[in-house]
């Protein structure tokens, strides 16, 4: 069993810091929520690296919101529900599509500069959207622009303290209430940060996989620590693989935005054949899971490790203007987006599931909230609609702050006792090798295509890595590996239990979607194990 706490320690004797609101993580979820919360609270933001290191920073496509007169919340709602393949929460989606535009206005007030054309927002279209509703910044650098603006705002805010290079080891709870977090400083010293509300904004779990568009920091920390604390973890079998990450010797798995296909790019196999018409009527703009699996099929059929993305038929000036960062990045590796076919392959991109929350972002643990990719609000269902993630973060960030402002100050015992695990003194060895082994196992057995034999084998192999939980650990990379292993076990377990194919979860042994038996969520809990929660609404 996964232990309640990663380390043996006592809170007595540790320094205690009191704050109104504790925000764990940066990115759009952490920054936006911290700025909103600071209007009436003293806020502490804890990041394990820095404010500029998050998945948001790498978001290229943009943020989805109803801005155009040709668009409507009803259209956005329908597109989101279709992509979510029957597992979205209607109420959560309603909140997203109706409150998203107001959130965009908040971002603009906080200094974000979205691209404009002729005095109006320049809107683009992405896969599975019926309308042009994606706002972008600096062409293809939307996430970077949002993080830049919000970081400047947060750093200048006297009511927000920012702790860079601090690692949150665990949440401190007692009788179903979250009191704060156990934090390790850069010098190794530990302290107890206590607050009336704790918000997990810790991002995703892309580092579960060998190939990912996510940065090094995306190690499932929030999901894992919430699970250890007794929060419900929902739908983590739904991992979105982005169809088109750069696949070139010496280059990282850099994201080639879906917006490139939105502006006319086509996919070709290594024989030069366009192939998407074999797989879906929407061709290159089919839902991401469809495109990713189509690419995988073509790679297998042609015995190749990649396919090509071809935008050479579009005007070169448009391509350079619309995608300046992608153009420059590819150029650094000798690839010209305007004249070369770009080699691409799928890579782990986004986890639809996460810490289960209500419509106010609150978990089943009182005073513990989750926002952004680490949360499962019900917006994304089985497959996230492109560019809905940034919208989700601001809509639910605002709802979380409204709920927090209604909370009474935290009372109760100053010191919660932590149970001792009696860990072995032998420190864990070779975490780097173990992490790589975990990533390879996940790609092989819990990746784009799954079956019972592979999932069972993957689970058995993952369980052999569990000695980390009974070892004395002190370093960030050891905590991260423990968190990755926790999330990997949960993902494999959920994927094995869901005997159907739906959205981003595809089973070769159960190739059909089964609404009769599987229109429900998988929910994991540290003590109660895996349960299923039916969706009653149609």
Taken together, the total number of domains comes to 2
Number of strands: 21
Described by its quaternary structure, the protein is: single chain
Uncertain residue segments: none
SS class: alpha+beta
InterPro entries: FAD-dep_OxRdtase_2_FAD-bd (IPR003953), FAD/NAD-bd_sf (IPR036188), Fum_R/Succ_DH_flav-like_C_sf (IPR037099), Fum_Rdtase/Succ_DH_flav-like_C (IPR015939), NadB (IPR005288), Succ_DH/fumarate_Rdtase_cat_sf (IPR027477)
Protein name: L-aspartate oxidase
Pathway: Cofactor biosynthesis; NAD(+) biosynthesis; iminoaspartate from L-aspartate (oxidase route): step 1/1
Subcellular location: Cytoplasm
Please describe the topology of this protein.
Layout: E1 16-24, H1 27-37, E2 43-46, E3 63-64, H2 73-83, H3 90-109, E4 116-117, E5 120-121, E6 123-124, E7 134-135, H4 142-155, E8 160-163, E9 167-174, E10 177-184, E11 190-200, H5 221-229, E12 233-234, E13 239-246, H6 258-262, E14 266-268, H7 288-301, E15 307-310, H8 316-322, H9 324-332, E16 342-351, E17 354-356, E18 368-370, E19 375-376, H10 388-405, H11 431-445, H12 452-463, H13 476-497, H14 515-518, E20 520-525, E21 529-534
Parallel strand pairs: 1-2, 1-11, 2-8, 11-18, 17-19
Antiparallel strand pairs: 3-7, 4-5, 6-7, 9-10, 10-11, 12-17, 12-20, 13-16, 14-15, 15-16, 20-21
């Amino acid at each position: 069993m996964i232990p309640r706490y990663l380390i043996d320690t006592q809170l007595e004797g540790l320094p205690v810091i009191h704050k109104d609101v504790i925000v764990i993580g940066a990115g759009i979820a952490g920054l936006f929520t911290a700025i909103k919360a600071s209007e009436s609270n003293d806020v502490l933001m804890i990041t394990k690296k820095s404010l500029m290191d998050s998945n948001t920073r790498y978001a290229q496509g943009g943020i989805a919101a109803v801005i155009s007169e040709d668009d409507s919340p009803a259209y956005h709602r329908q597109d989101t529900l279709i992509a979510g393949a029957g597992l979205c929460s209607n109420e959560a989606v309603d909140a997203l599509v109706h409150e998203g535009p107001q959130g965009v206005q908040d971002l603009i007030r906080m200094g974000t500069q979205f691209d404009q054309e002729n005095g109006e927002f320049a809107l683009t279209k992405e896969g599975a959207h019926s309308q042009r509703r994606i706002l972008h910044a600096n062409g293809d650098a939307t996430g970077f622009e949002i993080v830049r603006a919000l970081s400047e705002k947060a750093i200048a805010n006297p009511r927000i303290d920012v702790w860079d290079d601090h690692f949150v080891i665990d949440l401190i709870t007692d009788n179903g209430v979250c009191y704060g977090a156990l934090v390790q400083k850069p010098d190794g010293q530990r302290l107890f940060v206590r607050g009336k509300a704790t918000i997990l904004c810790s991002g995703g779990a892309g580092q579960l996989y060998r190939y990912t568009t996510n940065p090094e920091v995306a190690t499932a920390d929030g999901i894992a620590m919430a699970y250890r604390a007794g929060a419900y973890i929902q739908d983590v079998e739904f991992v979105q693989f982005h169809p088109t990450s750069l696949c070139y010797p010496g280059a990282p798995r850099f994201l080639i935005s879906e917006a490139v296909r939105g502006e006319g790019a086509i996919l070709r196999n290594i024989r030069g054949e366009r192939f998407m018409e074999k797989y879906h009527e929407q061709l290159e703009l089919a839902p991401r899971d469809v495109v990713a699996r189509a690419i995988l099929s073509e790679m297998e059929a042609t015995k190749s490790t990649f396919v090509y993305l071809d935008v050479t038929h579009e005007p070169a000036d448009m391509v350079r203007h619309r995608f300046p960062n992608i153009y420059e990045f590819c150029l650094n590796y000798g690839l010209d987006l305007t004249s070369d076919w770009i080699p691409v392959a799928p890579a782990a991109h986004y986890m639809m599931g996460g810490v289960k929350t209500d419509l106010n972002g609150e978990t089943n643990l009182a005073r513990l909230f989750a926002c952004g990719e680490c949360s499962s609000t019900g917006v994304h269902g089985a497959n996230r609609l492109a560019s809905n993630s940034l919208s989700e973060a601001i809509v639910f960030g605002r709802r979380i702050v409204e709920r927090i402002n209604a909370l009474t100050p935290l009372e109760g015992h100053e010191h919660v006792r932590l149970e001792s695990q009696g860990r072995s003194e032998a420190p864990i060895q070779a975490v780097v090798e173990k992490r790589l082994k975990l990533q390879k196992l996940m790609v092989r057995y819990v990746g784009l295509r799954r079956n019972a034999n592979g999932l069972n084998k993957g689970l058995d192999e993952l369980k052999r890595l569990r000695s980390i939980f009974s070892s004395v650990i002190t370093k960030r990379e050891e905590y991260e590996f423990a968190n990755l292993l926790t999330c990997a076990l949960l993902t494999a377990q959920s994927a094995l239990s869901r005997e159907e194919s739906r959205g981003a979860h595809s089973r070769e042994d159960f190739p059909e979607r089964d609404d009769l038996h599987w229109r429900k969520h998988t929910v994991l809990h540290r003590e109660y194990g895996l349960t299923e929660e039916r969706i009653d609404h149609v």
